[in-house]
Amino acid sequence: MVGRNFWAVKWDGSWVVREEGLPDQTTSHASEEEAWATAKERAAELHGEAFLQDENGEICDRQDFRQMPKDYSPL
Q1: What's the angle, vertex CA 32, arms to CA 22 and CA 55, rounded to 5?
Q2: Strands in the chain per DSSP E
Q3: Rounded to two decimals, what is the model's pTM?
Q4: Mean pLDDT across the chain, nearest whole number?
Q5: Helices (H) and strands (E) in the chain, counts
């Protein structure tokens, strides 16, 4: 299963959480902490990754909630 990725970024003076590939699915938050917590919560629910990005576009933090496939033996 492919997870969904979420980005917490400062945008136009406030913090927003965006779902990767769905720019219209954006939520606004009062603080960086609130946006980051929301991004991590959504990524965990959907087995994806959460990214915290600063005003300069640099990744400040990243959390991985993906579920990796179980080991298998090729035939």
Answers
A1: 75
A2: 6-11, 14-19, 22-29, 49-53, 59-64
A3: 0.82
A4: 87
A5: 1, 5
